[in-house]
Amino acid sequence: MKKNVFVFALGTIIFSCSKPSSQSETSTPDSITSVAVAEVPSSGLGNSVWVNARYLETLEKTKSPLKAKIYADTVMVSFNAAADTANMVWNFHEGSAFKVKNGDKLELFNTYEVKPTPEYVGSQDGSTLKLGTTTFKKVDAIEFVENKLWVGKYTSKGKTIEVGPNNQLSGVDDFDTYQVWVDYVTTETNIDLINFGKKVSDQTKTYGYKFEGNDIVFYDFIWQEDGVMGKAGKELFRWTRL
Hints:
Blueprint: E1 6-9, E2 12-15, E3 31-34, E4 48-52, H1 53-62, H2 65-68, E5 76-79, E6 85-90, E7 94-102, E8 106-110, E9 120-125, E10 128-131, E11 134-139, H3 144-149, E12 152-156, E13 159-163, E14 168-172, E15 175-180, E16 192-197, E17 204-212, E18 215-225, E19 229-241
Antiparallel strand pairs: 1-2, 2-3, 4-5, 4-11, 5-6, 6-7, 7-8, 8-9, 9-10, 10-11, 12-13, 12-19, 13-14, 14-15, 15-16, 16-17, 17-18, 18-19
Protein name: Lipoprotein
């Protein structure tokens, strides 16, 4: 029986419950495992991370995980160093592990349900992976959203702000960590969301944001039902990429 659910947040996948294995492309603790992929070879499956190609294309075009969520059903696959185990993620909060057989074709067998036939069959060629009808593209790390859109230096009101990997944030009064929202399955919002927080505290503050040219514009976010429903309020501040 499948049992693992993944919560995707800035490089950490938290395993907790289950999801049926049959997924459509258009709709993404027992233990806690961190997956870091600093460098990925140009070919091969070992120690690699793959993202639904349509999700990735939409993210790159819109810079909005909220707009890309329609392709987050089967959103990500990662392989261990030996490429004999794969973790598949749905909607950034559910997933399961599979045993991998890579011969004439790539086959993924459910780790928790012993079956004679694979649940996914596909192939891999360079930077493209295909499983069933879903195509995936290779990315550099689990933190691909942060790496593509956020990591870098900015200026705001005369201050230099640095957004780093692993949730690190510097140059922002009152905050030194950040978490970009990618899971919008249970939250109704009209704007993308980010949390800012402190390492020494569990408390965070949620802001709405959008990319506008070379700027990131941040908005007050008004919760109508905490964690479930909210909407953007007035513009609060901007960061300009250096």
